[in-house]
Every structure is written in structure tokens, then in C-alpha cells.
Write a structure and sequence with these properties.
Blueprint: H1 2-41, E1 51-55, E2 65-70, E3 73-80, E4 84-89, E5 100-102, E6 107-110, E7 115-117, E8 135-141, E9 144-151
Antiparallel strand pairs: 1-9, 2-3, 3-4, 4-8, 5-6, 6-7, 8-9
Bound molecules: FE2/S2 (inorganic) cluster.
């Protein structure tokens, strides 16, 4: 009789171990799937609905521009003495190169075909880009800036 009880206990232990292994295997398989689905839906921190937080001190008169990525799109956050901190899409509207900000001009510049945009992101006539850069929404949250891919509303 006692040998039978030991067999039952051994079988029960094996079942518990197998259930644990099955749980770990399921977690290993589902984690990447849930991560990708979360990124797609914008629920993963850092890409939530196309937003990125930066410190307000990251952009200033001493450091007038910062290139960041929001959901794999380049964005330029700039400081202009007369207008403060602004954010613009940094993808050239000509053929998609990444533009830079030249605070001394001030202007946005695309080195691929010498495209230029004025300080408000408007394409300069006579250069290749035919459409302006898009100004994006910035929301101050304490000492942080929430930069969004959402276009800034005029007003
Ligand atoms: S890609 Fe920028 S000017 Fe052509």
C-alpha cells in the first residue's frame, strides 16, 4: 500500500512540474506576441500614442536643437529665443532625408539636395521641398515636455 501512495505522490509531483513547465513555455511564446501587439496598439511606455517625454532642460539657448525619434519617426525639438520650444517633423518633404536645424540662420536644412525650410518649417521657394514640415504638439508636464506626433493646432 505505501508503495502505491509513493507512486501517487511521484505522479502528482511530475504533474505539478509539467504544469509549471507548460506555464513557462506559454509565457515565453506569448510575451513577444503581446509585446508586438502592445507596440502596434501604442500601449508600451515610450511610444504611447506617438508621445515621447524629454526634460525641459534638454533644449535651451545653449542647446537649441535635439533630434528624437517617436515611433521610428525623426522629430526635431528646437528652442527659438522669440518663440520658445517647438517640435517639427524632421523628415524632408522632398524625398525623406532627415533635416537638421541651423539656429544661426535660423532655418531647417536638408543636406540631400540642399533643401531649406524657414524657422517656422515652411519650405523655401526655389529649393526642392514643395511642402512644409509639420509642427507638432508639445505639452509641458512639470519639468518634462511631452512631444507628440499630433500636429499642433493653429490658434
Ligand atoms: S530629400 Fe531633402 S531636399 Fe531632397
Amino acid at each position: 500500500m505505501s508503495v502505491g501512495n509513493n507512486d501517487l505522490r511521484g505522479t502528482s509531483k511530475r504533474r505539478t512540474i509539467l504544469k509549471s513547465l507548460l506555464g513557462v513555455s506559454l509565457a515565453a511564446v506569448l510575451s513577444p506576441i503581446l509585446y508586438v501587439a502592445g507596440r502596434y496598439l501604442g500601449y508600451v511606455k515610450g511610444s504611447k500614442n506617438g508621445d515621447v517625454m524629454i526634460a525641459q532642460s534638454d533644449v535651451s539657448a545653449e542647446h537649441p536643437s535635439k533630434l528624437i525619434n517617436i515611433d521610428d519617426q525623426p522629430v526635431l525639438v528646437i528652442f527659438q529665443p522669440d518663440k520658445g520650444v517647438r517640435a517639427f517633423t524632421a523628415t524632408c518633404t522632398h524625398l525623406g532625408c532627415t533635416v537638421s536645424y541651423q539656429p544661426e540662420m535660423p532655418q531647417f536644412y536638408c543636406k540631400c539636395h540642399h533643401g531649406r525650410y524657414d524657422a517656422d518649417g515652411v519650405n523655401v521657394e526655389g529649393t526642392r521641398p514643395k511642402k512644409p514640415l509639420t509642427e507638432l504638439t508639445i505639452t509641458a508636464k512639470g519639468d518634462q515636455l511631452d512631444i507628440s506626433l499630433k500636429p499642433k493646432t493653429k490658434g
